[in-house]
Design brief:
The chain is α+β, with helices and mostly antiparallel strands. The chain is 36% helix and 29% strand. It has 5 helices and 7 strands; from the N terminus they run E-H-H-H-E-E-E-H-E-H-E-E. It has a 7-stranded mixed β-sheet, with helices on both faces.
């Protein structure tokens, strides 16, 4: 049984391993192993994860069974859009998917930003499993970004939004 809790500094290496494993399982077939290695090195370095962890207007959650981190979620208040929170990361270990871990992480993240009216995210257009998950949880497609990944990657993303319930 996995319990959702706020991440701590001691979790960051396990989270990094989970993210690298999840990214390779999801994106190697789409972008190649070498490109995924570049992205994970940049996005999930210990320093990058620590920056996310200490950000004041954000939530960094893990799903923990006491031995392993089975999933993680990270969302932060948008710097560009008012009353909007951006879901940056929601990943579950490939071996543990479809057991409700992602749903539980997402349900907690939805409640962490009482002043937000919209949750927004970007997803790889070919990531059918993620798109299905987000649609099932109330998101609708509102746009497209031709450079979704960092560094003017040229990797496109679909933009999804969901209205959030007020307090």
């Amino acid at each position: 049984m996995y319990f959702v809790r706020t991440a701590g500094e001691r979790d960051l290496e396990k989270v990094r391993v989970l993210l690298v494993e999840s990214f390779h399982a999801t994106y190697d077939g789409l972008h190649g192993k070498a490109r995924v290695n570049e992205l994970t090195a940049q996005l999930f370095s210990p320093a990058a994860l620590k920056t996310r962890l200490v950000r004041k207007d954000a939530e960094f959650l893990v799903a923990d069974d006491g031995r392993t981190i089975g999933g993680m979620g990270y969302a932060a208040v948008s710097q560009e859009l008012t009353k909007t929170v951006t879901l940056h990361l929601l990943y579950v270990s490939p071996a543990l998917q479809r057991q409700g871990i992602g749903r539980d992480l997402f349900a907690e993240l939805e409640t962490c930003f009482p002043d937000a009216e919209i949750m927004r995210l970007e997803v790889e257009p070919q990531n059918a499993a993620a798109i299905a998950f987000y649609k099932a949880h109330g998101f609708t497609e509102v746009g497209r970004n031709e450079n979704g990944a960092p560094g003017q990657s040229g990797i496109p993303s679909l933009i999804f939004e969901k209205p959030l319930e007020g307090p």
